[in-house]
Amino acid sequence: MDKKEEQPTIVIDVGESNSHEKAFDVISPCLQINPINLTFKHISYSINRLEINKDFFHHLSFPIKLTKKVILDDVSGFIEAGELVALMGGSGAGKSTLLDILSGINKRGNISGEVLVNNEDVKKFKTSIGYVSQTDYLKGTQTVEEALNFYIKLKAPLSSRQSEREMIVKEVLDVLDLTKIKDSLIGTEKRRGISGGEKKRVSIGCELVTEPGIMFLDEPTTGLDSFSSLAVVNALQKMAHKGTTIVCTIHQPRPLIFQKFDKIIMLNRGHMMYFGPPSGCKSFLKEAGFETEDNVADALMDAGAYEYGNDQGRELLAENFGGEKKSVQQVFEKRKTTIVKEIEEINSVDLEKMKKTIGRPVGFYELIKRLVISDYRDPSQIFGQIFAKIFFSLLIGSVFFNIQNDQQGMRDKGGVLFFIVTSQAMSLMDYLIQFIEERTLMRRESGKGLYTITSYYCAYILHSIPFLIFYPTLYLAIAYPMLNLRPGFVNFLCMWGALVLTTFTSQGMYYAIAAISPNITVAQIISPIFIVILMIFTGFFIQKDNIIGFWLWAYYLSYLRYAFELVMLNQFDDIPLFCQPDELVGGECPYTSGRQYLDSLQITSSILVDYFVLAGFCIAFNVFVLIALHLFNKEKR
Ligand SMILES: Nc1ncnc2c1ncn2[C@@H]1O[C@H](COP(=O)(O)OP(=O)(O)OP(=O)(O)O)[C@@H](O)[C@H]1O
C-alpha cells in the first residue's frame, strides 16, 4: 500500500481493534501539514542513582550504593498521521518520560530503542516538533494574536508571504476558538489576563501556527475544569482532523473526552499495559478478567493498580471487580508481537520526509519589538527606576547642598561620590529578578528553535540601552548642580560617562549572577554578598596598604573601585582646597590640593585607565553571561 498516493485519506489500523478510515479535513486551505507517522520500538529508560546502603551496618559494606531505576521497560507502539493519542497511566507510570523520549528531548538517563518519524530519527527534528509543556510559557504582555504572530514570524519558512501567515493565524484562532479574545492580553502576575484554559489553547496555537506534522502535549487538561478540558480536547481533535499527529498525556479522562481519542496507550510502572482504540478497552479488560460497567478509563486505571498495587489496594479493588482475576499484563504480552509487526509495516510506507524548520533572521527584530512592547505595557520597572533616581538625587542634593572645597566639603564630596556610584550599582537589583523570569521563557523558546540564545541576549541588552543611559543622566542632571560638583561641561561629561559605564557593568554583573543561579531565591542571596564585597573594596573605607593579603583579590576585582577612582580623579585632581578658620591644624591647612586627598586614599591611577578597566569588566561580565546561558540553560530533563 502506498500511503503517499492515498493522501489525504489515511487508513489507520490499530492492533487487534477494528480498522477505521480517517479523512483529513479538506476545508483547511492554509495549514500545510506534513503527514507524520511515529513509531517507537523497544524503548527502555533507566536512571542511575546513589542510595543509602541499608546493609551498611550488617555487612559493613560501603554506605552508599549505585542503583539502577527502570522507568520505562520495553515499550513499543505506532501512531499514524492525523491520530489523536492519549498516553494514560497512574502517577509515576512514566507518561511524561515517554512523551519526552518520543519528542526527542534530551534525557539525563540511559535510553535504548528507537523512535522514528517518517522513518528518520526523531532527534534530527527536535526543533520542528510541536511540544506543549504542562506549564504555559507565554509572554504575558502580548495579546493572544501577537503571541501567535511571534511564533509564525520566527518559524515560518522564509519563502512564506505575510498574507499566507495572516491566514494561518486566522485559521488557528478559529480552530482553537480564540478569535473572540485575540486582542486580549495573556496576562502577567501583576495584571490578570485570559483564563487558564484559554492560555492552554494559546500555547497549543503557538505550536500549531508553525504547522508541525506532529505535536506532543504534557497533561493539557490538568488544572482545567471539565468544560475547559473538553474545549481543549475538542481543539486537539480538530487539529488531528486537519492532519496533525497528536500525542498527549492525560489523567483519568471522563467518558466524553476518552471517546474522542483514536488510540490509548496505557502505561503502568513503566510497562505498556494497553495499546489500541478506546472502543477496544472493554473487551480487553473482559479478557483479562476485569469485567466492568464503570467508566472504562477508570476501570483501565484500576486494573493497572490492581496488578501493580499493594495488597491493601488489591483487596479494595477486588470488591469492585469480583470474580477470578487474571493479569492485564499477561493478556497484553500476547498482543506485543502484533504491535512490533505493525511497526515494521508502517516503517515500510514511504512518506514524505519530515520538514525541518529553521529560525529566521527576523528573529532579532521580533525579539526587540516584543521587549519594547512589553516595557510599554508593563512600565512599572521603568517608573520605579525613574522614581528612585529622582528620590535619591533630591535626597543627597538636599542633604549635601552646595558643598564647598574646604576640608569638611572635601570629605563630604568623597562620601557623596561613593554613594552615587554604589547606589547606582545597587539600584539595578530588579534587573536580576526580571532576567531570571525571562530566562525560563528564553530557555523554552530557544529550545524550540525560535531563535538562538545569543540573539536573545543581544536583543535583551540592546533594548535596555536607552534606559541604562537615561537613568544615570537623570540622576546627575538633578544631583550634580545641587551638590556644587566641579563645574565645566567636560567634568560633567566625564562623571556621566563613568556612571553610565558603571550602570552597564552592574547590569552585566547582575545578569552573570542570574545566569548561574538556579532560581530567584539563590540569586537574591548571592547578589547582596557580591555588592557588599564590592563596596568594601572601593578604596573609600580601606586603602590597599591596609588590606590583608587574603583579600587583595577583592580589591583588584571590585569594579566599583575603578568607578569610584574615576569619579574621584575627575572631581579632585588639580583642584585647590582651602580651610575654614576652625579647620586649621597648628595654624596650617592639612589638605591644600585635591591631589593630596587622592594620595591619602591611594588613588594613583588615571581616568583613562579606569575607563578601560571598567569597560573590560563590562565586556567580561557579558561574555560570561553568554557562556553560562549556553552551558547551564539548555533544555534537558
Ligand atoms: N530524573 C529522574 N530522577 C529520578 N526519578 C525520575 C527521574 N525522571 C523520572 N523519574 C521517576 O520515574 C517515574 C516516572 O516519572 P514520570 O514523570 O514519567 O511519570 P508520570 O507518569 O508522568 O507521572 P505524573 O502523572 O505524576 O506526572 C517516577 O517514579 C519518577 O519519580
From TrEMBL:
<feature type="domain" description="ABC transporter">
    <location>
        <begin position="47"/>
        <end position="294"/>
    </location>
</feature>
<feature type="transmembrane region" description="Helical">
    <location>
        <begin position="489"/>
        <end position="513"/>
    </location>
</feature>
<feature type="transmembrane region" description="Helical">
    <location>
        <begin position="453"/>
        <end position="477"/>
    </location>
</feature>
<dbReference type="Pfam" id="PF01061">
    <property type="entry name" value="ABC2_membrane"/>
</dbReference>
<feature type="transmembrane region" description="Helical">
    <location>
        <begin position="525"/>
        <end position="542"/>
    </location>
</feature>
<dbReference type="InterPro" id="IPR017871">
    <property type="entry name" value="ABC_transporter-like_CS"/>
</dbReference>
<keyword id="KW-1133">Transmembrane helix</keyword>
<keyword id="KW-0378">Hydrolase</keyword>
<dbReference type="GO" id="GO:0016887">
    <property type="term" value="F:ATP hydrolysis activity"/>
</dbReference>
<dbReference type="InterPro" id="IPR003439">
    <property type="entry name" value="ABC_transporter-like_ATP-bd"/>
</dbReference>
<dbReference type="GO" id="GO:0016020">
    <property type="term" value="C:membrane"/>
</dbReference>
<dbReference type="GO" id="GO:0140359">
    <property type="term" value="F:ABC-type transporter activity"/>
</dbReference>
<keyword id="KW-0067">ATP-binding</keyword>
<dbReference type="InterPro" id="IPR027417">
    <property type="entry name" value="P-loop_NTPase"/>
</dbReference>
<dbReference type="Pfam" id="PF00005">
    <property type="entry name" value="ABC_tran"/>
</dbReference>
<keyword id="KW-0813">Transport</keyword>
<keyword id="KW-0812">Transmembrane</keyword>
<feature type="transmembrane region" description="Helical">
    <location>
        <begin position="415"/>
        <end position="433"/>
    </location>
</feature>
<dbReference type="GO" id="GO:0005524">
    <property type="term" value="F:ATP binding"/>
</dbReference>
<keyword id="KW-0547">Nucleotide-binding</keyword>
<feature type="transmembrane region" description="Helical">
    <location>
        <begin position="611"/>
        <end position="632"/>
    </location>
</feature>
<protein>
    <submittedName>
        <fullName>ATP-binding cassette transporter, putative</fullName>
        <ecNumber>3.6.3.28</ecNumber>
    </submittedName>
</protein>
<feature type="transmembrane region" description="Helical">
    <location>
        <begin position="547"/>
        <end position="564"/>
    </location>
</feature>
<dbReference type="InterPro" id="IPR003593">
    <property type="entry name" value="AAA+_ATPase"/>
</dbReference>
<dbReference type="InterPro" id="IPR050352">
    <property type="entry name" value="ABCG_transporters"/>
</dbReference>
<dbReference type="InterPro" id="IPR013525">
    <property type="entry name" value="ABC2_TM"/>
</dbReference>
<keyword id="KW-0472">Membrane</keyword>
<feature type="transmembrane region" description="Helical">
    <location>
        <begin position="382"/>
        <end position="403"/>
    </location>
</feature>
